[in-house]
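Recall that a protein's primary structure is simply its ordered list of amino acids. Everything else, from secondary elements to tertiary packing, is in principle encoded there. The following example makes that idea concrete.
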Amino acid sequence: MISAIRKEFISRSKEIKEPIQTIYFGGGTPSLLSSLQIKEILNEIFSNKKVTSNVEITLEANPEDLSEKKLAGLLNIGVNRLSIGIQSLNDDVLTWMNRNHSSQQAKKAIYLANKLGFDNISVDFIYGTPRKINRNWEEELIELVSFPIQHLSAYHLTIEPKTFFNNQLKKGLFETITQEESSIEYIRLIEVLHAKNIEQYEVSNFSKEGFNSKHNKSYWQQKNYLGIGPSAHSFNGNSRRWNNSNNNGYIKNVNNNTCYHNFELLSKIDKFNELVMVGLRTKQGFNLEEALSLLNPIQLQKCDDQLEMLFSKKIIQKRDNQISMYADNLILAEHATRELFILNE
């Protein structure tokens, strides 16, 4: 796998036109890789492309993988940001979610990372869980932000089709919470984090001052990015491509120099919809002039009508030609996006 990843990077490195600002090891379980394996990939990147002096190098990790030896090794090879999948500090909830770590392992991972010198630690947290598991998520959140973390990604529990949770839901073994309850939890989550000087900068992302994720913001600002490895996605402003998700298939095709990805050219409507979708997720919003330049007269009229409707309901605002959500209603970003979407003709 490491050999195939290195080979893909070498063959595609010419696609990178600017100095690299962020390197992100994510998807799957990259914390299972040894520090030496991660170093091999980093060496390939640094040998072939220019990298900024303040590059953000993030590794997604499960708490159970972060031993003192592992953390020291990661620091030594240049990893300077951790994204730890905590999800909950309640052992019953973690068991229900089929997580392999305990709350104690989660806490230990954060404290060890901080002790060894990591000063940019992000954690994932899940809220919106069913009432039946009798969870005090707010108490967990307050405890979690008392730890030495700088960033938090908060995700509402979603039930995907063809999953264990979906089967349990169909059998009536639990009920999801209502939309109103979800909204109440979301608003309270923002209040708790604000009180700890952890501010929202995107629908699901919060950080202390100076610790917004460069990696995450590159998506929302629609910067070009190169994805290497199985299932990895890439974007160059005009097209998207995504790699084969099967590990063995990916390795075989890379080594045989045969196609290992799918490809999609973006139409003007695709670009408009993505600009709106990612922009409204952030406090900065999207540039109205740029968005409208992608539409024909008929589409422009429809967009104008929808914008006026959203303005009148005080769901969105316009400042310096930027369209954004009001700071206290980012929860409605998905609704506003649906209202502004233009369907392909």
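The mean pLDDT is 94. The domain at 268-340 is CATH 1.10.10 (Arc Repressor Mutant, subunit A).
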